[in-house]
UniProtKB/TrEMBL annotation:
Belongs to the enoyl-CoA hydratase/isomerase family. It comes from Collimonas pratensis. This is Enoyl-CoA hydratase/isomerase family protein. Keywords: Lyase. Signal peptide: none annotated.
Length: 265
């Protein structure tokens, strides 16, 4: 039985003995990462982690214009800081990074905001030439988290990172390959075959060795000690931005499909 188009779903299946596949879908909202969708995704990841599948493929479908529009902005009226530590997106990102195997993002179409962070949290990325990666929090006045910025910091040259966050312009698939964000670039129609080829190669390796390397890299990547004063300054800057009139204006402008008039307050 087909699901209605206005229902967000997350499905999982084992496509080969050692390879799982998770598909999230929210077509009415351009596959936005709503709280319900993220909670379902967290649950599917936990279920597959118990099965110890060495490789997971993660995607929202192939041959579509939008892979994911990022956070469901309609929910921000009730939650002005959806990327804080305990929120659904951050929990899913931690689940991907701690998954006891390799998670491969399969990307077709444009990726926006928090969905880019979702892709960056995966271990490997296979994309087709329609892929575009846009970090758009500055368009609505949302400050990004330190942990999220560190994920970009580890994956991109600093000036490219600043360009993405300051300009909110898309990083093309070709540039993403150039900077190592995308591991393999597939031609149109070849995304699933390319991702499966990579997954099968990993699945044939010693899973305990791969798992140990992933966990070592995760721990080393997380070893970013910051002075208490610096963390307090960052926290206060984020608090001010989340509570600002500019953030309210950004949300209202997005809802009204108009250009925001930011005043820096």
């Amino acid at each position: 039985m087909n699901q209605p188009d206005n229902v967000a779903t997350v499905t999982s299946r084992i496509i080969e003995e050692r390879i799982g596949h998770i598909v999230f879908s929210n077509p009415a909202r351009r596959h936005a990462l709503s709280a319900d969708l993220l909670e379902a995704l967290e649950q599917r990841l936990a279920e597959l982690a118990e099965q110890r599948l060495p490789v997971l493929l993660l995607g929202s479908g192939i041959g579509q214009e939008v892979w994911s529009a990022g956070h469901d902005l309609g929910e921000l009226a009730h939650d002005r800081d959806p990327i804080a530590y305990g929120k659904p997106l951050e929990r899913v990102l931690r689940a991907i990074r701690s998954y006891p195997g390799v998670v491969i993002a399969m990307v077709s179409g444009s990726v926006w905001g928090g969905a880019v962070d979702l892709v960056m949290s995966c271990d490997l990325v296979v994309a087709d030439r329609s892929a575009r990666f846009s970090m758009t929090p500055a368009n609505i006045g949302l400050p990004y988290t330190t942990s999220g910025l560190l994920r970009f910091f580890h994956n991109l040259p600093i000036h490219v990172l600043k360009e993405m966050f300051f300009c909110a312009l898309p990083l093309t698939a070709e540039r993403a390959v150039q900077f190592g964000v995308v591991n393999r670039l597939a031609e149109s129609g070849g995304l699933e075959a390319e991702a499966l080829e990579m997954a099968r190669g990993i699945a044939a390796k010693a899973p305990l060795a791969v798992r140990a390397v992933k966990e070592q890299l995760r721990i080393m990547e997380d070893m970013q000690p910051l002075p208490v004063q610096a963390m307090e300054q960052i926290t206060e800057l984020r608090r001010q931005a989340c509570a600002s009139a500019d953030f309210s204006e950004g949300l209202a402008a997005f809802s009204g499909r108009r250009q925001p008039q930011f005043r820096g307050v």
